[in-house]
Each structure stands twice: as C-alpha cells, then as structure tokens.
C-alpha cells in the first residue's frame, strides 16, 4: 500500500508544492511537483525530487549526541537537555552567551516561531545569523527608506515589461528575496510576452544566457553602475517619481559625482551601455530593478540595495503592477512599531553597529577570542554551519575549540557541530509541519499554504519542542511557552485600535484557536489576525481553511499598498537617509581606485544548497563540484593546468581549475559550502572540495549593515607546487 500526500518543499525560497508517495513504513517512494498548487503548478527541481533521500539520509542524527573529549556517544533526550542545563548553569554572565542562527531557520516553523523567545530567554545581545552573510544590506536599506526592514519590494515578475537583474542567478538558486516557484518559467514568459531581461553579472550564467542582454561587471562595483544610471535619469530629465518623496534633491546632487564615463572605468561597463540602460528603464511601459546576493555580499552592499529602490522610485515603478511591489503575506500583523534604527548597541570588540537586533557574523570570532568582560564563552547554534559559511570560517573553526560550552541544534555532525558538547537533532522533515512565515512575505503572488506533519513524531521532540525546551531551560520558567506567547499576542491585539479584536476577551479568543500543536495554534492566531484573517482582515482565513485547501490558496496578484507599508516618521519614502548619504562619501572616495589584478567571487549550483546537501548521492558529482572557474586567457597567462593554489590575505586553498570563457578576465569563482574533508557525512567526505571561506576576509564589511563581503576578494593564483614569497 502506498499513500499520496502533499507538502511544501522546505529546501529553498521557491516554496514549491510537492506530491509525495509514501509506503506503509513511511518511506518516500516518489516525489513529483504538485500540479494542483496554484503558485508552483507542478514545478520541481532536482533538490525537491531528492527530498526523500535527504530525509532518510543514514548519516542524519536520530538521537542527541554528547561529546566526551574526542568521542561522541548517543544520549537520551532528558540526559541531553540536562547536559545543556548544566552547561548554562556554569555561565556566570549572560553577556558571555552567543547565538548563531543559520539559513534553514527561514524555512522552518521552529525558526520562525521559537528563535525570538529563545533569544529573549538567553538574555544576550550577542545574536548572530546568516543574515549578515546574506541579505542584511536589503533590510537596512528598506528600514531606512520605508521605515521597516521587511518592507522589501519584489519585481512583479509575471507582469513586468522590463527586468534589470544584478547579482542573481535564479536558474541555479530558484530566486531569493523574491519567492517565485518556477522562476525560470516566469522569466521565459516575460520574454515570451515581448518583455526584456537584462542580466548584470561577472559571469555569463544560465540566467544571463536566457536574457536578452548580458552585461559583465567588475565584482563589487554595482553601486557605481546603479549611480551611473541614476545620474543619467537626472541628466536627461527622465526621473518621474509617482509618489511624493523626501530627499530627491539630495540624491540628484549625490548622483552628479557618478557620471557614466567615470563609472565605466570603475565597473568595466561601457558608458554607452549605462546611458542606454537608463533610457530603457525610463522608457519601458513598466520595469523593475532586482539585485541579489552578488550585490549584497559586497563592500557597498547597502548602497547597491538602496540604489535599486531609488531607481524603482525614479522610474515611477515602485508600487505599481509590473514594477517593484510589496507583497501582502497572510500572517502580516498590523501592529505598531518603533521607528527603524540601526546601531542601538555595538559589538564589544570592533564596535560594529547592531542591525535588526543582530551583530555581524564577521565579528563572531573576535567576540569569542578577545578576553574581557562579556567575552563569548557559551555558544548555541541552530541550523547553521558558520565554519563553512562565515567569512574567514577557519578562524571560527579554531575559536570554537576555545569555548567553554557549545550546543547545536542540527541534524548533522558537521564542520561546525563537531565543536559542540551537545547536538540536538530535529526530527525528519516529514515529521514537521511547514508554513513559510518569512518567504511568503517576498512572494510575487499573494499565496498561503500549510503542510501539517505527514508522519507522527515517535519518541523524538519536534524542532519547535526542542527550541521551546531550550527557552524554558534558559529562562528558568516553567509552563507552556506557546500559551504564553498566544496570550501576549492576544492581549496586545485586544489593546490595539483597529486590530479587529479590540476590547475582546483574551480567554474567550484563546479557546477559539484550532491546531494539534502549539505551533499550529500560533499559526492559526497569526492567520486570523492577518490581512485575510477572519478576525482582523477582510477574509475568512484560518488554519482550518488552509487545512481544507492542502494544495495552497492563491490570494491574488500583488496590489499597490505603499501607504500601508510605509512606517517612516515622515510618512514618505526617504530617498536620501543620512546614514546612506554618509556612505556615499565612502563610495566617492573609492571611485578612482584601481582594481586588484584578480578577484574572487562565489557561485551556486542547482543541485547544491549552501553547505548541507552534499551528502545526497544523486545531487553531488556531475558539474556540481567545487572548481575554480577562471577565464582561459588568465589560466594560460598564469600557467595553470590541473590544480592551482589560490591565496588571499587570510589563507590559501588548492583546487582544481576549470577554464571557461563564461567568466570575466580578472575574476575567478569558487562555490561556497564545500570543504568536507574528514566529514562524518560519508558521501560529502568523498566529494569534499575546499572551503572558499578560508580565503574570505572578516575584517572587510559593508559598513552600514556589517554584512560580510564574499565578492571581490583580492587573490593571487599560482600553479600547484609553486611557492610565492610574500
Ligand atoms: N563565500 C560565500 N559564503 C557564503 C555565501 C556565499 O555566497 N559565498 N552565502 C551566504 C549565505 S546567502 C548564506 S544564507 C549562508 C548560509 O550559512 P549557514 O546557515 O550557516 O549554512 P548552511 O550551509 O545553510 O547550514 C545549514 C545548517 O542547518 C542544518 N539544517 C538543515 N536543515 C535543518 C533543520 O530543519 N533544522 C535544523 N536545526 N538544522 C537544519 C544543516 O545540517 C547545516 O548544518 O552562507 C553564506 N556564506
Ligand atoms: N541551488 C541552490 N539554490 C540556492 C542556494 C544554493 O546554495 N544552491 N542558496 C540559497 C540562498 S541561502 C540564497 S541567499 C539564494 C541566493 O540566490 P542568488 O542571489 O540568485 O544567488 P547566486 O546563484 O549565487 O547568484 C549570484 C550571482 O551573483 C554574481 N556575482 C558575484 N559577484 C557579483 C558582483 O559583484 N556583482 C554582480 N552584479 N554579480 C555578482 C555571481 O556570479 C552569481 O551568478 O539562493 C538560495 N538558493
Ligand atoms: S526549486 Fe526550491 S522549493 Fe522548488 S523543488 Fe527545488 S528546492 Fe524545492
Ligand atoms: Mo542565503
């Protein structure tokens, strides 16, 4: 007997609906795209198709592990939690605790619902996450321009006439900060309806090949290119904002310093191309500018992200169909908020400003290694592998060895968790409920889908229960965390004018909530209080309704809603926030800079996902390998054949060379997430590769956001065996 079940793929930001077949033993015997999902319509990629293999990977941990010296032993859950409590009890000063939250927290209900109360319970400001190795520049730019770090406009992919895409490669990544299942199909449709796609990337990627035009750019220089376009819009009187904005004159003044000719030298993009792109953007019936990881993890990441939306504003495309629009997610809660600010506190050692309640992961090693009051001695990682993913990860590898105590919530014993004293593994994916709290806020159509757990939990706690129990241990409180959170949310909403439940009785409302678990009841509450909700919104959405619609619900095309989204003190879009104008001076100061001879950038492969899917046989091998892409002319000039040694200010790796004319001369590329030599994951160890973050530099950051810089890292390259004297 087999059964057919449906659930959302939790592996990337595309949120595809999957149809799984399971046998009696709960083993996955087949995975297809869910044709009845109104958003993904049957799309699936090789990772989604391997979900069963990943879920039943024999190297996944099934029981907690406790480390004794070099040896690991399996432990029961009570014993493991007792060990964590003993470790925490030895912490004299809560300031010496740090937390690192990795990327899958954006894909689990546990991460969305329990990370915040856990951090609160730990009582520390040493909060680090993959966000400062990823998208923090976008949050800071949005916070300063629109007043909320999550007010992130997405390109209206299905309706736009013109898409300028920088530093993104959705044919491999399937999209990011732009949730769009079948991104490739949507781009083809854009071209099919006569639209134009222009891709700016130091590599001619598969996305670039699909586009109408590919523009090579020197890594790290997107802010210059975008300013050159802004300059042209003003110089040719093409700027036509459709909204009243603050700071238009300041942006016009600032842009004077970035004429296309000056910018061309710095970016490698010809001046004629820059002026033409400006005219095309201004002239298109509708257009959107979209820029992702290649532009975020760069030295001027926040300025680039800001300029993306400056362009969307100046071309009249912000908040209109076909332009850059704000999604309306079903769990958005229209509560009050404090005005957005960065730098409410600073990191102890380098004095780097807090952003969104976090400190830059680029300074985690400093906080662990530097003695003094508040030195980090206790670390909790949840779903993260910073040894492979953070800048200069090798330094963290060493720093973690010096901690007093470390706890990791993770299904694998890997490069990071091997330093833990206790590893707490979440259950199988199919034992977990799934709702995309974070990603549906960036969706190109409004949509909601809930997938209940497909298999019962047996004796293991859910990840939600793991995090909740850690929070209770850390707070010393007893009771039901979910009940506490629900009551608090209800109380706040009942006190908020216009919340839909203003003045109503908390206990009575609490009894109306449905759900098998605390997580489900919290989801139910958020849906009911959300914009389509049966309590506060204009609809009848609730958990029940999502359970009755297992393929998901289409909530319509994006609609203009700038007024609702804006949370600035002025009530207007702030086009020239002072913090960013200050950073423009830094940008100006570097305009004439000569580029290093060779710089390193990253890349992603469709069959990979950061550091943790290299243990699934069908996904590794073929072209998904860790090679150094280099232009054939550079390879010949440097006498490279076979393997090469790549050196940076921070370290060196020896890696196989892959000459290809798809990459610009003067640029080389290595994917991240590799470096599994000696791993306890058997397949990954056979396809080890090298850790690109041996080479990246934690001392260079994007100043306004503290974000790590992975693109544009200066390196030197030599044939294997040749030693360069420094
Ligand atoms: N050089 C370079 N470095 C980069 C990047 C780059 O482009 N270049 N990209 C950066 C980006 S965008 C990101 S997001 C970061 C990612 O950085 P991290 O989040 O630190 O790294 P991941 O490889 O995603 O690690 C995910 C971890 O979560 C575990 N995991 C998987 N599923 C679950 C789950 O359901 N629950 C729990 N508890 N654990 C789970 C995995 O075993 C793994 O240990 O890397 C960054 N690093
Ligand atoms: N298959 C797969 N999918 C993934 C992931 C994965 O590891 N594998 N990771 C997920 C995560 S965590 C994220 S954040 C997203 C990221 O999603 P994307 O942003 O689409 O990421 P990439 O595919 O790395 O594309 C970044 C592109 O930027 C280019 N680039 C590098 N430097 C520069 C530069 O200075 N300027 C410009 N203009 N371009 C530059 C690179 O050549 C690359 O083609 O993908 C997610 N999806
Ligand atoms: S594109 Fe992303 S969400 Fe869709 S099947 Fe692949 S990994 Fe899963
Ligand atoms: Mo990411």
TrEMBL record:
One of the record's GO cellular component terms: membrane
SUPFAM superfamilies: ADC-like, Formate dehydrogenase/DMSO reductase, domains 1-3
Name of the protein: Anaerobic selenocysteine-containing dehydrogenase
Molecular function via GO: 4 iron, 4 sulfur cluster binding; metal ion binding; molybdopterin cofactor binding; oxidoreductase activity
Pfam families to which the protein is assigned, alphabetical: Molybdop_Fe4S4, Molybdopterin, Molydop_binding
4Fe-4S Mo/W bis-MGD-type domain: residues covered: 2-59
PROSITE patterns: 4FE4S_MOW_BIS_MGD
Keywords: 4Fe-4S, Iron, Iron-sulfur, Metal-binding, Oxidoreductase
Organism listed in the record: Nonomuraea thailandensis
